[in-house]
Design goal:
single chain, 308 residues, mainly alpha, 71% helix, 0% strand, transmembrane, transmembrane helix, Integral membrane protein, membrane
Amino acid sequence: MDSGDGHMRMVEGPVVEAADPWDPESRTAEIARPSVVAEAPDPYDPIVPPRYSGRAAWFARWRGILGRCGRGLVPIGLLAAVPMHFFVGRVDDTVVAAPALSDMLGGFALLLLPVMWLAYFAVSALPLVIGLAATVAVAATEAVTGSLPGPRRVWRLVAYRLRPLWLWFAAFGLLTQALPLLLTADRLGAAVAAPLALGLAALSTAVLTFTGVLGCVVLFERRHGRRRAQHLCALAPLGGLIVASLGVTVLPRLTDLIWDGVLSGLVAVVAVLLWAIAALVTYARARRAERPVTSGSLFAELSAPEPE
């Protein structure tokens, strides 16, 4: 046997079994090139849209979370309604109350005014904190276990993240709530009333859009903050979250103009819950743009013990 006709073909070490070593034309098996291997499609995930998905996939996750977790979101809405209705007033009410306090307590009462403002900004962030943290915990747990978690489990998942989340939301609330007090049509003139209202609404919507992603960063990634949120906002389409943020900004005010304050508070709570779902899906879509991530991996991050 001639050695030139009988040798086996080798490709980077292993023998190609499909090749015929006795082929007189010395043909070998074809090896698929990596460039022509099709990328496997993303499996369906109840929270995370596919990497290159559009608005339809985003809305399908948003609607799916609302449908599966709607019953579990009712207690969250009732809890958020307490600070929304009973404790959160307009910050300019404290300015109106200042002369009355001065008559009752003397000049010492004016020193209480900054404390009243700080308390207002702190409490006004509570509905957003409760809505986002609890909604994330309920949706992530349901996506993995298939059942809605109880209040104790929700508390264990987010308790250690509430303080930084509250601080961030109160800081951004200071920006959006203080500007309407400083920039009023009475000071700037009636001609700028409409542009001023539109500008403040746009600012509030932009802040809510950013803080939605920032809140999810705090809940899932803990040690990361503003810069991480800015990076993720650049990776995912924000259209759905912007619409949800606009609903939180506009719908309660429109309801308050048409009906009483009780109904506007209810509308505000519902808008916050819908905004929280939109923030979660948008955050998950941005994380998927970086690397593979699933509802299971997000739940594992959320349920990981707090580092010492």
